[in-house]
Design brief:
With 570 residues, the chain is mostly beta strands. The protein has 2 helices and 44 strands. Strand 30 and strand 31 form a beta hairpin. The protein starts with a strand and ends in a 10-residue tail after the last strand.
Amino acid sequence: MQTMRLGALGLSMAALAFGGCGGKLAAGPAALTGVDTGAGHGGGESPPLPCSTNAQCPSGLVCQSSQCVSPSDNLPPEQQQPISGPPPAATPDFVFALDPSGAQAVRVDARSLAIEAIPLGGVPAEIAAFPNADRVLVLNPGNDELHLLDATNPGPTVRTNVPLDRRQDHLRLAPDGSWAAAFTDPNNAPDQGAEGIVTVVRLAGPGQPAGGVPYDRAAGFRVSDVFFRIAGGATTGAVAVALDSVAFVDLSKPVPPDLPPRQPLPASASADLASRSVVATPDGAFVLIRSFTAKELTVVDVDAQTVSTLALPDIATDLEIEGGGTAAVAVLRATAQVEVFRIPADLRPTGAPQLVSLGGFNAGQISLAPVPDPATGHPFGLLFTNASPTMEIARLDIASGTVVPYPDALQKLVQGVGISPDGKAAVVVHRPDPNPQTTDPYERQVALDQGYSMFDLGSAVAQLKRTGTVAVQGFAFAPGGGAAAVALRDDGNQVYGVDVLDLDTLVATSLGLASPPEFVGAIPQQTGASAAPLVWVTQVDPGGRISFVDLDSQSIQTVTGFELNSQIQN
């Protein structure tokens, strides 16, 4: 990992490399992936898997023409772009980034561009922002600590340390900020050889010790996912999904039970970690596991602490839960269908999920809107695939099962799709067609180019933006919708930039960047009702560089390590 240093004084930010296009896009600070407000989010599997024998493929896939494919349709898994490095965390007023090599965090004011270095020691690895507050939590495996960084008051950031008694790799923060969980990456050897230990941390509140109190709890073998159960707006539990079991941690009392109860997972969910995908409802009441090898879903009822399976007509190539938690959608690529499960009714054996034909369009993924359709009030999503060459997308109304195809709206092959926070527009990332079937010279060049399209969902009108050899590296929507910023990167020709998108007019304005963009994200909320939406872009630069894009004025401010606070580039 490279390091972008913010100045000769040693201030630095972790370089966050994320090249390449990914799958489905939603809200998050990343390159076509992420988890926070306003940027691309991945769906589907990793990039194509090379192979020479079936043994080199994840369980359930076969090797064909040197590529791992699904035996049901001989197509590769749907793609998403993996994240490299710890993404920054954006709060209402700041962007916090980690500098592992410098053993510190860096706080950048989103408006004044003032920079503060926060020494941490060790090797900080992951960071999470508290909701609606200028506070972040940092996991530091290098010194076995959590760091609570509080910038809610004027002046320097206040750091409070929470010692842990073992090294952990991954951090999860409950939505209400009352609990955190840390666990070992399932592909790493655990500290002290102790497999499956999850550390849950009761974070500081009135009358509690400063920082928080950690509790180690045994949760199985190779924990891959941790979700929090939220009831009545409060965190009441956590569920840890391991390779072959799921553990339920009661957090409704000050001290969790010594040994959380567990339930075994079925064979389809535990064949291997590479052959499954795990999602949860927003409140953590249900956890669903999609198998890449079997025609079934695994359903974990967190409150009842039960595990069951539901049969599917085909192997699901994607499984997503809509933002309100009312429905889950399984995409069945080989049979050109989707199955819609009402939650919780259709997650029971007596349920009657709706099977919807896509009319021959073999979609492999769905990007679900973060809000219901502004016109109908129904949750919806856009279906697409990047496993086969197609320009088609289709809209699914989840309540009615109505499918509206858009076979002629786009001009290039689809790679990924993201829907704006207001549900009114989408950004479609394209990929080049290496073998365009056209004799028209202009159409041929369009097919060979990189690019993206803005798509107005009300009118079903799309507008293409060709970017030549410059690939889309990620994008971020304005928190309220209506605008977005797209980061662009071509290392071969050293062309870098950010496009500001007006999603009402479908007009894009190009701004230059002096160095390669890394991660892009939105400041989650603005101070004052009239404050302009801001997007941040970290960049690779020997001195360190971060830019803030004003989506209203379509202007950019950049601070580099050499200038620090003494010079702002407009």
